[in-house]
């Protein structure tokens, strides 16, 4: 199967790290096609950057994701644009944050997210609530360093991640830690070795769900919508006659 | 006061209709500054178009809305990008759908929305729920014609609007009708003359709230975020040092 | 338009302060008709006084509010009797607390109420939840002085209001302060000058909503109910045949 | 023990029927002291009448309920003024609707209320939701005849009650029927003989709870509140220094 | 009437204490038939023991509870197997925890549970939420000693119970204390003498509700289900043709 | 890895079908160890049978699941005993219903479950709500045939499954169908070929989640609990000193 790994940030370095990790997770017969957002924030760290990424994700899917792709993993923890992407793509789409949170909720009663960037605290709390997981989310613990900084200098962030996880466990009652964001690739094993509860990321469950769902067609909402000043690919995607439903 | 009237659709005709209506609603000392989205759908009619408009709204605010503006009314029923706009603007921002629904909820126990475009049914139902109004929203009744078509040929839509309102009242228990969307400008009076419950739009309460709030500064979340391929104005807006908090 | 400003407390001094403030807020063509409850607590400061005010509000409306009135503002923060008033009045009715909370919720994500009188803490928390605003209400901060005392000696209360607002912002995460109660008239400007977030009261949004809604008729539930020992006006009001629905 | 049976309606005939029924339910050592509201609707059948009854209930308690009373049963299905009564009484108070709904919820998964008076449909639905029972309330089925008419001519109402109960069972999934209101006294046995699910009223569980709770003192919120034009007893009750808390 | 008092724990001593207490609570004409679980934990103190007790409760009902029994009280605070028991029994069944919590919720706005055994903290919090009482449960305060230890040495536990109740009142806002568990029999009076709010257990309201409901038949879900390795009585009970609906 | 496939029903034929399906889903390096409940219903089809299975699941885990097992899949749609199993197992445990519903919720906005056995309708609706998925569950559509009958004669059930799925899509708005239960193995492909939305089961996501989680240790709640008349293995499991937390 061909799996589009769609990074809603514009950082190519982050996409490269994600692709490397994804290839280690995916089945041998899964081809990972990494794609980077063509505009927006290098690292999403505010609600404004998040809203822009919703557009960038659709644009990147329109540009790269329509031909012979079996499923999409939106590899940007927080899942900007995911609802719209699911609506228009016609193939299964999974978000790294949604998949991570749902997998965590299936494994334990209460879990915490540890991630980078202060703005993500309320944003992820609201997002988990919108998924029906308000009761199961013990806390979101944010590091000062954002995802880009953590990914670029992982050793420097390790101790802060550990301290945040320990607080989530002892103060918030977390029974599992979800490491949020592309920058956390490579942090699972060192952290898991030091703490007493399971540690997961969102990439693994998203890829597993995508592999399981690949091949099924989903109804897509597309209509003859007039647009202007979008990329040609996106304009074509959202303005074309619907394939179904 | 100077009030930015921000249309997240790209239709200039719709902006013109909105501006005309807004000037009839606003206080004499309120200057209406109408702005149209610079890219995206002419009339938002899908989740994808809605997500793109979230970006377009920020872009238009960045381009036109920063200098000597006292408040913003996001004049696109459904309020794309509103949470991000509130976060970054530094001045009070109100959405036409949010203001209309909250005003309706303050006036009666249960209200319905009548609007154009099939995709808006579930989208507005979810949006009202996110505002805490799930119990008070009796129904969303959608016309086949979208907001652009209604606005362009209002007489043709009048009977369909009436029929939808009657169903909302008699079948769904609505005690008030909110007419949703820029296309509905001019439909309130004819409809109110024919039905037994109050009829409101979202523009009036949004402008009233904006006039009341104008002048207060709100904290804005802005940080040194690296971006690429955004308009220069938007890049400057979301990447600049925060003015507060 | 003629706007009934209905104070559910029995304090004439409070009504006078409210009427003065209302005339400063209302449009030039809005006539403010102030009315005071004819029985009950001088200043509502307990659940019992609140329940009694529900009757007093209906009684005052029946006595003064039926002739050529276009809308009602219930000017008693907490809105005693509002649901019943909306049901029976036949014209639009808005409560100061409901309007203030809904306007706050439209402007920011999380707001706090600062008001006087210890009993109002749980009462307003429950009331906001009944409006669907539990998630958006950051806190209710109550002063020891009640609304009557604050209104009578505003300078004495100023520092306590400021301290409560600061705690709401820094400890509870409030992004806006709603000053609750007639006693707070005149406290907005001094407070707004000292803190970093918007400060509103409930009177302004209630009047704005009432002005916008004035003229629409709402269905009223009235029936041939036998009553005894009520004021003649109230007995007539609730026992008369319904005008509609 | 001495149990105050407080009818918030002003109908003496209804109080008499309630007292008769209560004496048949109560333990031999329980003395029933029946009290009738001194003002308001003969039979509560609208939101306005309900709000007035909130005052009348407090007034009647103040007049009759303070001396050597061990507990109160508010014998008016819908429980007007109950929250305020609990707050101020200093002794345990139970409402017929609350006790009936909570007992029903303890016995089966889903129950329906059958009662008289059209206005009670939405009022009781909202009330059950405020008790946390929205999921368990299958429906409220209202008869056209109100509680007073049912009580005065019980045989005439019997078939309508039966039909409503059957619809609640077969269409709404009710596993138990709560007969709501003083008018329903005497209807349980005939109905129970004809249908397949349990039938209860609210009076029995309210009296049982009151008998169990009698003797415990509850904290009361009373303060030095200035009042006017209330009955002397009520004025004294709500204005006196608190006995505790 | 004949009331089956079903202890889901396997401790005969606990059953004896419960039966003694129940006979003091019940009406003279109520015959208490005490039954003890035939397998499982002596004192339920974990989720696993709780799940096993769900089976043991059904087994004990099948063995002892079908002949001439009018109602069941499940006398194990936490109510293991109650939903299944209600479904299959054909007669009214009440749980000690459910009845206690619902009675508490009818008496005051917010209550706390004080019980023994650390695992019960989250278990009872979740259980109260499933009953719709999340808002009214102020807290669950657990003692280190479990229910068996408290019952065996009541004087030793008294001070710890008192301290927990005081914290529930002063720190959590409890207006009433529910003593949870068979081990608490005998603790109500000493505790009530020392604190300012009402103290109840679950046994009294459960017996009262059972006495009121006795005699009504409830629909039971039974079908021709093939089973193996259950007690003969249980196998017969759940595999027999349904008596109704 | 070694994966315990735990069937809470007592039907060996069902276990055989599940094991066959599981081996087709699992990775080559995953060893499937199938286990069947040692007592209870052949096919769970009532709340009583479900409660018994909660015990049987723990018993079977205690008997077979402790040595060198890396994770558990509870392969009985509805997940009896899952919360207790997670609490005591010390290794990751996933339920077929929970995993299926969470995976469905990650893929589409609204999904329906199609399964066999009338009692499962309300039971699965309540279960999905307890997972936070009430809003996303469009419906549970039950066939008259139960899971055992469907599994034994799959061709006979095929048309009924198709009809139920079509109704879920067209009447309930389902965007994805979850086939519930071991009996549904083999029904996905024929159904997916005939309908327009994705079709999934619970076994695949449960196995994927288990493979991802295998190897992590979870805290287990075990204590020195005295038990009687349980299997020796279960008695040892739940009574042993806790390995952690």
Total of domains of chain A:
2
Low-confidence stretches of chain A: none
Overall outline of chain A: globular
- According to DSSP, the number of beta strands of chain A is 10
Please supply descriptive tags for the structure shown above.
Rossmann fold, 245 residues, homohexamer, globular, 4-stranded parallel sheet
Descriptive overview:
The structure is a homohexamer of 245-residue chains. With 245 residues, chain A is an alpha/beta fold. Chain A folds into 2 domains: 2-95 and 206-241, Rossmann fold; 97-201, Rossmann fold (3-Layer(aba) Sandwich), CATH 3.40.50. In chain A, 46% of the residues lie in helices and 18% in strands. The first copy, chain A, has helices at residues 12-25, 47-64, 82-89, 96-107, 120-130, 147-152, 154-170, 188-194, 203-213, 232-239; strands spanning 2-7, 31-36, 40-41, 71-74, 93-95, 111-116, 137-143, 177-180, 199-201, 227-228. In chain A, the strands form 2 sheets. In chain A, strands 2-1-4-5 form a 4-stranded parallel β-sheet, with helices on both faces. A 4-stranded parallel β-sheet of chain A has the order 7-6-8-9, with helices on both faces. In chain A, strand 1, helix 1 (12-25) and strand 2 form a beta-alpha-beta unit. The radius of gyration of chain A is 17 Å and the shape is globular. The model of chain A has no long low-confidence stretch (mean pLDDT 92). Chains in contact: A-B, A-F, B-C, C-D, D-E, E-F. Strand 3 (40-41) of chain E pairs antiparallel with strand 10 (227-228) of chain F.
């Amino acid at each position: 199967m061909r799996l589009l790994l769609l990074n809603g940030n514009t950082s190519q370095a982050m996409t490269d790290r994600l692709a490397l990790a994804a290839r280690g997770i995916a089945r041998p017969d899964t081809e990972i096609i990494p794609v980077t957002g063509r505009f927006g924030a290098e690292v999403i760290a505010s609600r404004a950057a998040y809203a822009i990424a919703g557009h960038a994700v659709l644009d990147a899917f329109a540009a790269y994701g329509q031909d012979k792709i079996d499923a999409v993993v939106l590899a940007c923890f927080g899942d900007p644009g995911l609802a719209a992407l699911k609506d228009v793509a016609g193939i299964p789409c999974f978000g790294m944050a949604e998949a991570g949170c749902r997998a965590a909720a299936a494994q334990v009663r209460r879990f915490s997210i540890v991630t980078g960037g202060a703005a993500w605290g309320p944003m992820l709390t609201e997002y988990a609530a919108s998924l029906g997981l308000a009761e199961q989310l013990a806390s979101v613990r944010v590091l000062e360093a954002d995802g880009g900084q953590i990914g670029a200098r992982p050793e420097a962030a390790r101790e802060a991640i550990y301290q945040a996880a320990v607080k989530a466990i002892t103060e918030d009652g977390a029974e599992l830690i979800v490491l949020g964001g592309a920058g956390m690739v490579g942090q699972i094993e060192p952290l898991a070795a030091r703490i007493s509860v399971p540690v997961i990321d969102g990439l693994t469950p998203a890829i597993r769900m995508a592999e399981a769902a690949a091949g099924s067609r989903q109804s897509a909402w597309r209509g003859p919508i007039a647009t202007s000043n979008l990329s040609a690919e996106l304009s074509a995607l959202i303005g074309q006659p619907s394939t179904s439903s």
